[in-house]
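Shipment paperwork, digital attachment
Item: protein structure file
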Amino acid sequence: MGCGVSSAHQFLAYSIEKPDPQENNQGQTNVRRNVKFKDEFLMIPQPGITTLQEMVKNSVAKYGNQPCLGKYEGDNFKFMSYNQVNEEAMHLGSGMSNLSLVKEVQEYQHYKLKLVGVFSKNRREWMILDWANMLYGYTMVPFYDTLGPESIPFILDQTNIETMFISGEATKSLLQCKEKYKLKNLVLLDSISDQQISDLKNKGYQLFKYEDVVENGKKSVVQLTQVLPASIFTLCYTSGTTGNPKGAMLSHDNLISAIASTQQTDAGINSNDVHISYLPLPHVMERLIILTMLFTGASIGFYRGDPNLLKEDIQKLRPTIFASVPRLYNKFYDGIKAKINEVTGFKKSFAERAIRVKLENLRSDAKYTSGLYDKAFQGVRDLFGGRCRLMVTGSAPIQQEVIDFLKIAACCPILEGYGQTESTALSFSTAAWDPKSAHLGGPAANTEFKLVDVPDMNYTSLDVIDGVKTPRGEICLRGPGVFKGYYKDPEKTAEAIDAAGWLHTGDIGLITEKGGVKIIDRKKNIFKLQQGEYIAPEKIEAIYNRVQGVAETFIYGDSLKSQIVAIIVPQKEFVEKYAAEKQIQGDFEQLCKNKDIINLFLKNINEYGRANKLNSLEIAKLIYLEPQSLQTFGCLTSTLKLQRHHAKQVFASQIEQLYKNQA
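Attachment content:
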């Protein structure tokens, strides 16, 4: 991937109309597809690879002695080769079979599944288990390491899994659960205390060590199982922003088409690439990135499981590809900007000129590097290990000012991707040639899309903005990446996928001039105020989170009230600095209750909100400053998305008090 693009690229397009004669276009746009794959979907990455089992066999044959999976040992990362990983995966899968740890569960629809659970942070053993499942046709049920004692029993009950691979840390969460259902075998990935062993045995669990299962399989290797493209590879339980998690059934051909499509983006992953795995592996975005790395013979290093050590892990591994989510990129952005603001004199004027010139070059010609001005950002490049050639962002929309700044500071493209668990992570991607940011780009090679009118929210396919036809509506997807349905939940499946096979995402988008898509709203997370006006909290939160001094936001509205309420987590340094300047006394908690500081946030929200075209109902006049992160209260999912139903319960008394004070 080059550093910049020629001006000829300004004529490139992201999608092309592919009208479907069976589609009634009333109330929706024409169907659109990837420009390069307008006539047929891309199903496989190369001939002969139709399942993940065929994929890993191919990778072992091509890249056998190259480094595959690494973990931090001593003072650096140590890697197992593709051959070594494959051998351990065969022994692990054989041991699971020999010890009868995985049994076929009762048939669901036409699927007969051999389910196995895994409950751990990202680690090498996690992926070796995933590899073993590819070889032996087992279906993985990953548990987010942040799941609480309510969600765990729900998944155990729905899946009837009998065996779970589990880290020492996760056993604590398991012990808090009242019900164990059919779960009886725990394969321990770590050593645990005698007390924990005793507690687990008292609850009726049979314990195995990971090493012992591998050793058992080594003595008697089992023949590989035939895996079909339609075989279910994983039940990917959504972390649940509302209610109980749902188990999305993803098949081998779902993942294979997504891998093929990833390789058609500007990511260009190859055998020289190195990736650091720290985003939760149960999330399909991280899973897809790793599987694509395995297809190409690249190397994956797993962080040590401690966010505080991630910076050091990055420095040691020196990844060439870095993937993250907007919430974390925002923290990088704030930290880097704060350091630049501390610089004085010539260095400051050079940094300011570097930012201005590089932003101009980025926004006109999609240029990411500049011989002279890159020097101003050497510290940023070092922050990501010094050899990062590509970054990826997904999971939620990102602000243009954040992504543009990070592109010029990291001196490399940042591709924006969009997909859901239900569409196997990749449905849209931006391109390196595009100077514009903060949109989704065009459809993946395995995807077609259309926008469907949402009259209640005044979004239609006939919309005109500033004199230009700009179709808007709910993004609907179709193609080989769309999942097979929710496990044992035909009702929710029917809500998600209509009779014509369209996945309804719940996201509101508009079609850009180059045939890409930009998310502008969310259909599901809207509420009405007393006046009958619809409020889209996610859009407002994204803007508030860029307000000076704001770290996190939760917006709530009551249909019986005329105003929204904002729970704001302020940046501690910002508050303490302002308090010192104004000689306001107190610790951080006391400062968050100070009227002058609350008024400062109201003023900042008002000014920034109006500058970003929020209307008067979207600018909060009732705010509560919460000194602790929303994550502390369990209000965020593992992918750092807000769980509104939970946040509403956590802050019920504060919300009630704010509305009372208004009265």
